[in-house]
Amino acid sequence: MVATSVRTLATVEDTEDFGRRLGELLRGGDLLLLAGPLGAGKTALVRGLARGLGVLGRVSSPTFVIAREHPPAEGGRGVGLVHVDAYRLGGHLDELDDLDLDTELVDAVVAVEWGEGMAERLSDDHLLITLERRDDDTRVAHLTPHGAWLDRPLP
Ligand SMILES: Nc1ncnc2c1ncn2[C@@H]1O[C@H](COP(=O)(O)OP(=O)(O)OP(=O)(O)O)[C@@H](O)[C@H]1O
Ligand SMILES: [Mg+2]
Fold first, then answer.
1. What's the whole-model pTM score?
2. Which residues span the domain enclosing 22?
3. Is 2 inside any structural domain?
């Protein structure tokens, strides 16, 4: 049985703050899959993750880059973040493999936008976050833990 819990995120700040609180709970080797339509707030959430983890570099929607590495900031927790936007991969698993994310996944947190249906195979233990966009701009985050994530605390 897969249990999904929901969080209501009224503003972009709420989405970033949720990401920050989640980021504070993460450790190296964690895999997050971010789903939801264009403009749902996946990148906004990753911006929060970066803050919670304490990593360097600006989080943005990479136009030409599929994956961007954010190294840990000095004096921080020592865990980096790899931010992947798999949108342009269009489901091509071989291109995902070319990114060698399984190597990154040992030390860093890997967060994959548009990774649902592709990136699960990187680890049975992952957290799927599906952002739903409501008409009033509110987002509803559906959190679905898999594997070891079933026993992990969620913000
Ligand atoms: N409650 C909210 N949570 C997140 N973003 C919101 C919210 N309300 C409005 N927004 C706006 O929606 C947009 C979300 O953009 P973002 O780039 O994070 O989406 P995305 O899911 O990464 O899209 P893409 O699939 O194109 O990568 C931003 O312009 C943000 O300001
Ligand atoms: Mg995005």
1. 0.95
2. 8-149
3. no
